[in-house]
């Protein structure tokens, strides 16, 4: 059973991970140019 706080944290974690992945891909694209 997850608490509301745990749920909020995992959601925030997901968006953070997505943003990081986006930045990583952007950086990789920069390197390839």
Automatic annotation (TrEMBL):
Question: By its UniProt entry, which Gene3D superfamilies does this protein fall under?
Answer: Immunoglobulin FC, subunit C
A Pfam family of the record is T3SS_needle_E
Q: Which InterPro entries match?
A: T3SS_PscE/YscE
Q: Which domain of life is it from?
A: Bacteria
The name this protein carries in UniProt is EscE/YscE/SsaE family type III secretion system needle protein co-chaperone
